[in-house]
Specification:
CATH superfamily: RNA-binding S4 domain
Helix content: 10-25%
Strand content: 25-35%
Radius of gyration: 11 Å
Strand order of the largest sheet: 1-7-6-3-4
Number of domains: 1
Mean pLDDT: 94
Number of helices: 2
CATH class: Alpha Beta
CATH architecture: Roll
Shape: globular
Length: 72
């Protein structure tokens, strides 16, 4: 499980995908989410704007499992 540190209260799913190196540009998020299964805390979600908070677990099929941690 890889830790992704954020210095803000939350991060949206779209920017998270870029930060975690699942996609290379933010513009790819919409298409990536349509084609790739993403589970947040065990439940599927495809909303780019979904807010992720420290403690949330994100599983991206083919890329691994990530946990959001506070880096502040």
């Amino acid at each position: 499980m890889k830790e992704i540190g954020i210095s803000t209260e939350y991060i949206a799913l779209g920017p998270f995908l870029k930060l975690s190196d699942c996609i290379s540009t933010g513009g790819q998020a919409k298409f990536f989410l349509q084609e790739t299964q993403v589970l947040i805390n065990g439940e599927p979600d495809q909303r780019r704007g979904r807010k992720l908070y420290p403690g949330d677990k994100v599983e991206v099929k083919g890329y691994g499992t990530f946990i959001i941690v506070s880096s502040s």
